[in-house]
Predict the 3D structure of the following.
Amino acid sequence: MRKVISRFSQWISHSASSPFAFFLASVGVLVWLVSGPFFNYSNTWLVTIATITDVIIFLMVFSLQNQQNRDSKAIQLKLNELIAADQRARDSFIGLEEMTDDEIEELDMQFQKLISELETNPGPTALHKLHRTIKEEKAKLPNLYRKAENLVDRIIKG
């Protein structure tokens, strides 16, 4: 069932973003406008377009959110793969999107500090300090991150 809903959502998102869908919506609005005099611009005539657009918007919000979540997850997985593949990259950044806002803010402050240190005193020492700090923080990460890291290591090593 979940697979069917996911495929349907993908199809809706793809179809709704097509030029044909825009054309169809434009024609629908034009037909509604032209039909106004026929219905004497009644409340029913006004409510019809409002109801139709409300239903479409309601369904599209969920469909587009589903597609955006899928795209975001795919991008995160691709970035995780790049981090895991590059030996110079810090693997502690894998799963960064699962951190709390406070943890991300703290990491951002560490990078801001690193940038200011590198501007005043260029050299590898600040980078090494930051790397050491992140390794210490990584040791505190939940078991889930360690399991994911082990899985990535097994995949890379074959």
The chain has a mean pLDDT of 79. The radius of gyration is 26 Å. Helices lie at 2-16, 19-34, 43-85, 101-120, 124-139, 143-157. The chain has two domains: 2-79, 90-157.
